[in-house]
UniProtKB/TrEMBL annotation:
The UniProt record lists the keyword Phosphoprotein: no
Entry keyword set: DNA-binding, Glycosidase, Hydrolase, Transcription, Transcription regulation
PROSITE patterns: HTH_ARAC_FAMILY_1, HTH_ARAC_FAMILY_2
Name of the protein in question: Helix-turn-helix domain-containing protein
Residue intervals of the HTH araC/xylS-type domain: 167-265
Organism: Candidatus Anaerostipes excrementavium
GO function term, MF aspect, one: sequence-specific DNA binding
Length: 803
């Protein structure tokens, strides 16, 4: 049964329509019936309406109406507080004319958009969104009163004069329902006879005077039942009933239960999760479609020969713990990334993990390298280059940057420097015996400093690198690097793998200045970058989220400047880990937003970073007991069955770019082979709205994440390339967006099933960017064309002469 009550402080409340057929009835408050999917047939005392998708109809207060549907329906009923309307308009008689079926206008379009916004914000809101939701409610009142409120003249044309008495009856009843009023009393007030008034009320409301009075009283009873803890006996007395028995009789006739039972049942919180999920799915596909037709300011793109540089950026694959590489699934995904993404460097860690059977405490001649050799043999046979982290790295699964729910992979450190030197002397000697120098010279060895963040009892603990800890690290690095360099001077080893976002340029320079004083300096510097700043407040450490999507560029520039100032300017820089979130349960990891972010980041750092790793490669690294859903917000570039996420396609695009000449313009990457052939990577990265940062990263639903962006406007880019030889040129374009290449979108089309059949998995494997080819004849040595991008779309273009 529909809800016929509102909280006294509410402006607008909504509920989903559940029943397919509702008999004639009326309400104390105006209501808007809004259909998302399906059809709803509505009958009022004056007319019948057939509502389809995104149609709405306003039913005025106390107007009898019924509705029915024959199909599956997704519709919403918005109640609008008549009390608030009267307070603001200073009038008792308030009538609206508002129906999208009979009137197509800009005001109706504004109403449709506003109803969807209210619905979206209520479905996705947190307590911090409350003010914004209230502002939308007031916008609704403003739109209704400004565009759809009937004046006195229109009142007469749309509603008969004979109903003027009815509004006066209702006004009197609403003002005096708490008292014991009679038909005679109302008749005297209107100067009518009781007999005439009784017939008049029944004719115009379909019910007798007593039933009308009780319906008004019941609406206030329901408000007290649902929103207060007032005893039923007091509710009865407060709202004009002579006794609890009288209230029970009337209430049971209407709601088939006594007030006490009804309150108990309703406070179990009826679950409308299914309706909310369906509404979220609908809004995901259709919300603000008209806004997307708008175009942002154009950007003009051309390649300048004066600022081109070689393309330095090469992607590495963060595969996981060493033991993971022994698994057939992981090896298959590595081969996929080699074949599709052009990956050559495979980064892994925790070579001392228990299942590897490599115990560094046993002493020379007793170390068991068998399992590690199997992994290295596989990589060597596939012509891949190991990127070996020589220090242990804990496996942490995070809901948010400050909330951990699992940690493993912690290994014992070396007992002393002697034990450490003995192991690495033996380890590097073993590698050089087993693999020749021409192979090992391509490998990368990294010795990182101990992580500067800890979790104790699942609580975040900051542990920034102190001077003492840095000095100890440099002594350890001298031992490890010395063991390698004495045997193979050409080998590459570096560090320190610290999170760049946690340290200022001065701090980093001090670190590097100390390093310059040591015997062995790094062949490269490695860092990570994530959108947080480490903070301490009241003795409590926490990671504060950064809202700027240029954070990687800022971190890289900070490190690069510190390197130059410390005399490390000629060293390579490896960005081994970066992502839009540290969370292992954020659907932004599965979205096109992440893809556009990586495209933008790659363009910003293409000439500053040699090796670039997205965190992480495979969703199984993030799996735990709560990952029954096929997509669960894991931070892999591939799903748990190895299907490409949108970010994976961006890495594929990057692998296809020319290396000879490259230039970044306005966040886009233009490359050329020097023979007037071009490859472009363009995007329309849209920052997240404030609502995204007000919610915890793991609390945003799958279909809500891509709606939390600042704008839905498209972007137009005008491309102009000069000095093009005359003739026919071909432009091959690959478009990655929500409709083409988004596994999150396609999974939602499969009803986000937890268990997918092989047929459905085979379908998802075919999800990919859409390709377009067109030819253009050049007769003025200038090639010009436009690129239109929707929010967070990425496009890869290949421009070649067509012979």
């Amino acid at each position: 049964m529909e809800k016929n009550y509102m909280h006294s402080s509410a402006i607008v409340e909504f509920e989903f329509l559940e029943e397919q057929n509702i008999a004639p009835h009326d309400h104390e408050n105006p209501e808007i019936l809004f259909v998302l999917e399906g059809r709803l047939h509505v009958k009022t005392d004056q007319q019948e309406y057939d509502l389809g998708s995104e149609d709405f109809l306003l039913i005025n207060a106390n107007r009898s109406h019924s509705y029915s549907t024959k199909r599956k329906l997704l519709a919403v009923r918005f109640q609008i507080s008549m009390t608030k309307l009267r307070e603001m308009l200073h009038r008792n008689s308030i009538l609206f004319w508002c129906c999208s079926v009979l009137e197509k206008s800009k005001s109706c379009e504004d109403m449709q958009r506003l109803l969807k916004d209210i619905l979206f914000c209520n479905i996705n809101k947190s307590s911090k969104d409350a003010f914004y939701v209230i502002s939308l409610h007031y916008q609704l009142l403003s739109l209704l009163c400004g565009k759809f409120l009937l004046d006195d003249k229109r009142d007469g044309s749309d509603f008969p004069k004979e109903k003027d008495h009815m509004s006066k009856v209702l006004d009197y009843v609403r003002s005096n329902y708490q008292n014991r009023i009679s038909l005679q009393e109302v008749a005297d007030e209107l100067y009518l006879s009781p007999t005439y008034l009784s017939k008049y009320i029944r004719k115009n409301s379909g019910k007798g005077f007593v039933d009308l009075l009780n319906s008004v009283r019941l609406s206030h009873v329901m408000e007290d039942l649902m929103y207060t803890d007032i005893p039923v006996i007091k509710i009865a007395m407060k709202n004009g009933f002579a006794s609890v028995a009288a209230l029970n009789k009337v209430f049971k006739e209407t709601y088939q239960a006594t007030p006490s039972v009804y309150r108990k049942n309703k406070k179990k919180n009826k679950d409308d999760k299914e309706f909310r999920e369906k509404a979220a799915a609908y809004l995901h596909k259709h919300r603000k479609q008209e806004e997307r037709k708008q175009i942002e300011n154009e950007n003009f793109l051309s390649l300048s020969q004066d600022h081109v540089q070689p393309m330095k950026l090469t992607c590495l694959m963060n595969t996981g713990q060493a033991s993971d590489l022994a698994k057939a699934f992981t090896q298959n995904q590595i081969l996929y990334c080699k074949r599709k993404l052009g990956i050559k460097y495979i980064r892994f860690w925790n070579i001392f993990e228990e299942s590897m059977r490599l115990d560094h405490a046993l002493g020379p001649g007793k170390f068991h390298y068998g399992r590690l050799d199997e992994i290295l043999d596989f990589l060597v046979k596939q012509h891949l280059y190991p990127y070996i982290e020589l220090r242990s790295k804990p496996r942490r699964l995070l809901r948010t940057a400050n909330n951990i729910f699992h940690e493993s992979g912690q290994q014992e450190e070396f007992a002393n420097r002697k034990e450490q030197k003995e192991f690495f002397d033996d380890f590097f000697a073993h590698l050089l015996r087993r693999y020749n120098r021409n192979i090992v010279k391509h490998w990368v060895f990294s010795y990182s400093i101990e992580t500067d963040t800890k979790f104790e009892d699942y609580s975040f603990i900051g542990k920034l690198i102190s001077e003492e800890r840095w000095d100890a690290y440099l002594e350890e690095f001298d031992i490890v690097a010395g063991s390698l360099k004495k045997r193979f001077p050409e080998a590459r080893i570096g560090g320190a793998g610290f999170p760049a976002q946690h340290y200022s340029q001065d701090h980093i320079k001090k670190f590097f200045d100390c390093w310059r004083q040591h015997l062995y300096q790094p062949d490269f510097i490695s860092v990570t970058s994530f959108p947080y700043h480490i903070m301490q407040e009241g003795g409590v450490w926490y990671e504060q989220r950064r809202t700027d999507f240029d954070f990687v560029k800022e971190d890289v520039e900070t490190v690069r400047t510190a390197m130059k100032d410390a005399g490390f300017g000629d060293r390579k820089l490896h960005l081994t880990e970066c992502n839009l979130t540290l969370s292992d349960r954020s659907y932004i990891n599965d979205s096109v937003i992440r893809a556009a972010f990586i495209a933008s980041t790659a363009a910003q750092i293409f000439d500053k970073v040699e090796l670039f790793g997205v965190w992480n490669a495979l969703d199984p690294y993030s799996e735990f007991s709560d990952t029954a859903a096929y997509l669960f917000g894991g931070n892999g570039i591939l799903t748990k069955t190895g299907i490409a996420k949108p970010v994976s396609f961006v890495l594929e695009f990057l692998s296809h770019l020319y290396k000879e000449m490259a230039e970044e313009k306005d966040g886009y990457l233009i490359t050329s082979n020097g023979y007037k052939h071009y490859k472009l990577l363009v995007h329309h990265l849209v920052p997240m709205d404030t609502a995204y940062y007000l919610k915890e990263e793991d609390q945003i639903p799958a279909l809500g994440i891509e709606q939390m962006i600042k704008t839905n406007e498209r972007k137009m880019i005008h491309v102009r390339i000069d000095d093009i030889p005359k003739g026919c040129w071909q432009i091959r374009r690959y478009c990655l967006n929500q409709e083409s290449g988004s596994i999150l979108n396609e999974w939602s089309n499969l009803d986000m099933d937890t268990e997918l059949r092989m047929e459905e998995l085979n379908y998802l494997e075919k999800v990919c960017p859409r390709m377009f080819i067109r030819k253009q004849n050049i007769d003025r040595n200038v090639l010009e064309f436009d690129i239109e991008l929707e929010p967070n779309e990425v496009q890869y273009l290949h421009i070649t002469e067509f012979n």
